[in-house]
Amino acid sequence: MVSTDLNTIDPDLLGGTPVFKGTRVPIKTLFDYLENNYSLDEFLECFPSVTREMAFRVLKRSEFALLLPAKA
């Protein structure tokens, strides 16, 4: 099992799909909702075990990873 402050990856939990830490909600579900024009509030309403802070931190970390300059 791999666990960070935001997510858990456990082969015994949803086959190793990365989930929000302390939940069974796949992180990909957040991105799926946003890609399908749902708001963050709608996602949080559907998945009350995920806090606004958790979702926001995942989005910020993703933004940081995407904008990080590539190493040559």
Write the layout of secondary structure elements.
Elements lengths: L1 E2 L3 E3 L9 E2 L6 H9 L4 H7 L5 H16 L5
Antiparallel strand pairs: 1-2, 2-3
Classification by helices and strands: mainly alpha
Q: How many individual domains?
A: 1
CATH topology: Arc Repressor Mutant, subunit A
The rough form would be described as globular
CATH superfamily: Winged helix-like DNA-binding domain superfamily/Winged helix DNA-binding domain
Q: Using the CA coordinates, give the radius of gyration.
A: 13 Å
Residue windows where pLDDT falls under 50 for at least 5 positions: none
Report the portion of residues in β strands. Answer: 5-15%
- The CATH architecture is Orthogonal Bundle
Share of helical residues: 40-55%
- By CATH reckoning, the class would read Mainly Alpha
What's the tally of helices?
3
Q: Summarize the main sheet.
A: 3 strands, antiparallel
Structure description:
The protein contains three helices and three strands, in the order E-E-E-H-H-H. With 72 residues, it is mostly helical. It has a single domain (2-67), classed as Winged helix-like DNA-binding domain superfamily/Winged helix DNA-binding domain (Arc Repressor Mutant, subunit A, Orthogonal Bundle). It has a three-stranded antiparallel sheet, with no helix packed on it. It is globular.
Short descriptors:
72 residues; Arc Repressor Mutant, subunit A; mainly alpha
